[in-house]
Structure formats: structure tokens, C-alpha cells
Amino acid sequence: MPSPFARAMAAADTVVARTFGEAVLVTPMTGAGELAARTPDPLRGSTLVRGVFSLKPGEETLQGVRRGTELNGMTRVAGAPAALWFPASVLAGLPHALRPGDRITLTERPGEPVYELVKRGPSDLDDQTWPLVRVAP
């Protein structure tokens, strides 16, 4: 029997996924190594699921290998970190585990680039947050 906290989190996750979630096509990829060509994995088929995509504007400083205190006037670069969150209920329904390198297509946003899962973010719950990078066309 799940704890009261687990039941409350499941209910909250359902509301968040229903309110902010969108259809996402997960295409598992295969290919070992950084320089290997990635191809769709024939053993793990593509799956259409719901996830919460976020793309928020951000700003980073170019610091290189500099050490010491933060200096004013450092070069700044505008960016937009992308991430995708899956609630535990969605992950439980997947026929296979997500892996770094799997491709993500936002099916409800025509013209949006294809993204790739980078590395699962930390979580002490059964949900998963994945930072994304754009796949070169």
C-alpha cells in the first residue's frame, strides 16, 4: 500500500501532466560512443507519451578555466535550456527504459527541432527530468 505522500504526489503529477503536458514521440536510438552514428534501435520501438517540455530563456557567462572571484563585465551568452519531465505514471507505461541519446519529437509543435536526451536529472521520486540538446538537422 503506497504511503499518503506517494498518493498525494501521484495526484499532483497527474494534474501537472494533464495541465502542462503534451504529446512527445520517444525514438530510442542505438550507437555506442560519442562519434558513432546513431540509428533507431530496432529492439526498442518508438512510443508516443505525454511529458512536460520546458524551454526557458537563460544567460550564461563564458568563464573558461578561470579561477577566482566573479568579475563584472564578463562575456555573456543568451541561451535557452530545454528539459523534459515525465511523471512516474508515464514511465511505468513505457515498454523500455529511457536512455541518454534517445530522440524526442514534440508532435504538437510543428517546426520544432528534434531533441536528444542527455542525462537523467536527480530526483528522489519515481519521476524523471531530462535535459535536452537539439539534434543537428
Measured between the Cα atoms of the first and last residue, the distance is 47 Å
Q: Report strand %.
A: 25-35%
Strand order of the largest sheet: 1-4-7-10-9-8
> Which runs of at least 5 residues are low in confidence (pLDDT < 50)?
none
SSE string:
HEEEEEEEHEEE
Number of strands: 10
What's the main sheet like?
6 strands, antiparallel, barrel
**How big is the Rg?**
18 Å
Mean pLDDT: 83
Structural category: alpha+beta
Structure description:
It is built from two helices and ten strands, in the order H-E-E-E-E-E-E-E-H-E-E-E. It is α+β, with helices and mostly antiparallel strands and 137 residues long. Strands 1-4-7-10-9-8 form a six-stranded antiparallel β-barrel. The protein has a two-stranded antiparallel sheet with strand order 2-3.
Summarize this structure briefly:
With 137 residues, this protein is α+β, with helices and mostly antiparallel strands.
Highlighted features:
137 residues, alpha+beta, six-stranded antiparallel β-barrel, two-stranded antiparallel ribbon, 2 helices, 34% strand
Helix/strand layout:
Elements: H1 4-20, E1 22-27, E2 29-30, E3 39-40, E4 47-55, E5 58-61, E6 76-79, E7 82-86, H2 88-93, E8 103-106, E9 115-117, E10 128-134
Antiparallel strand pairs: 1-4, 1-8, 2-3, 4-7, 5-6, 7-10, 8-9, 9-10
